[in-house]
UniProtKB/TrEMBL annotation, chains A, B:
Domain GST N-terminal residue range list: 4-87
PROSITE patterns cross-referenced by the UniProt entry: GLUTAREDOXIN_2, GST_CTER, GST_NTER
Taxonomic lineage from the root: Eukaryota, Metazoa, Chordata, Craniata, Vertebrata
Protein name: Maleylacetoacetate isomerase
Catalytic reaction(s) noted: 4-maleylacetoacetate = 4-fumarylacetoacetate; RX + glutathione = an S-substituted glutathione + a halide anion + H(+)
Cofactor: glutathione
Pfam families in alphabetical order: GST_N_2
Gene3D superfamilies: 1.20.1050.10, Glutaredoxin
Pathway: Amino-acid degradation; L-phenylalanine degradation; acetoacetate and fumarate from L-phenylalanine: step 5/6
Family annotation (PANTHER family): MALEYLACETOACETATE ISOMERASE
Keywords, comma-separated and alphabetical: Cytoplasm, Isomerase, Phenylalanine catabolism, Transferase, Tyrosine catabolism
Compartments where located: Cytoplasm
Length: 216, 216
């Protein structure tokens, strides 16, 4: 099957989309982007066309090499296996385990419990507290784990998949007004990573679907 | 660092612990088990000793080769990299992507939103409906995805990490009285897998900490 340029389905504010945008930027993978507005028209992810692409009705989705992949970490692992340079997983299996543990802590333990569709079910008056509790509890654990894994980045000094999860989650934390002073290691790593170009070009404030008032 | 037998920290009913128990059984990895009762004493996962082991206060945790790994999929990926036989990820990167997509769909998209600590926050009167909605929505997507990936198992005919996620999630669905007739492919694969020894010895009804009234 001949495939053209990879196509990323993305929403500027989706933290899971941002993870993949960083991976594509770091690995320098030329691609097209189709934006899916999760709010407009009752949510474009609920359209028939998009559901056929991803029955989970979530972004990101990546069409690449003739296949369609949903779930951000599955996408990043596929990119890593097929476009290994620069690597987003260390060579040492024990360090790879740390990277995946931190990635999963964020991708399974924090993000899904504070995402848009869950917060809608929680109800407007409780949303902020709910999200803050989830993130605070996850970040408390993460801050402790980072004491034994972090260098300049989450695991040692090289950017890894864990960092691709960290930065978008910190942005969510800021959006939900979580006080980050209790997490000096998370804050330090986040700051370091945000100075890198791949994290900047992929940032929610610089996407084609970023509303004018949120642009930077 | 010299390491003895791997130690799995597990709770009989934890679906994430079950995933790892299946992996250990399939790969024939000799190990010890320490049971953590998530309910007794207000939750043994909140003890100082356990928090030092896993700041996320969750099972499973695996101590192996001198390291401590939390997060079930990170554990399984580590086992796969260090004990590759029998394989739990296919050789073809595209099929690996399908396995990881299905695993993440369950491990990020379904399980975390219906786990014990979230249901406690949702409140007793809404718990059942909440869990049913989450599982129904995830299974509807999964049933559709399996149409293009499944053989005898979730991806083709070989047992993979996706199957290790599927069976425990179906058990949760049954516990929450989800009607499974709408998911014939999920039900068929689940039945096939439950006939395998590794899925049976690891089953919640056959663990050292299974209460007498739930034993089978």
């Amino acid at each position: 099957m001949q495939a053209g340029k990879p196509i990323l389905y993305s929403y500027f504010r989706s933290s899971c989309s941002w993870r993949v945008r960083i991976a594509l930027a770091l690995k320098g993978i030329d691609h097209e982007m189709i934006t899916i507005n999760l709010i407009k028209d009752g949510g474009q992810q609920f359209s028939k066309e998009f559901q056929a692409l991803n029955p989970m009705k979530q972004v990101p989705v990546l069409k690449i090499d003739g296949i369609t992949i949903g779930q951000s970490l599955a996408i990043i692992e596929y990119l890593e296996e097929t476009r290994p340079t620069p690597r987003l997983l260390p060579q040492d299996p024990k360090k790879r385990a740390s990277v995946r543990m931190i990635s999963d802590l964020i991708a399974s333990g924090i993000q899904p419990v504070q995402n848009l569709s869950i917060l809608e079910q929680v109800g407007q008056e409780k949303q902020l507290t709910w999200a803050q509790n989830v993130i605070t509890s996850g970040f408390t654990a993460l801050e402790q784990i980072l004491q034994s894994t972090a260098g300049r980045c989450c695991v040692g000094d090289e950017v890894s998949m864990a960092d691709l999860c960290l930065v978008p989650q910190v942005a969510n934390a800021e959006r939900f007004k979580v006080d980050l002073t209790a997490y000096p290691t998370i804050s330090r790593i986040n700051k370091t990573l945000l100075s890198l170009e791949a994290f900047q070009v992929s940032h929610p404030c610089r996407q084609p679907d970023t509303p004018a008032e949120l642009r930077a």
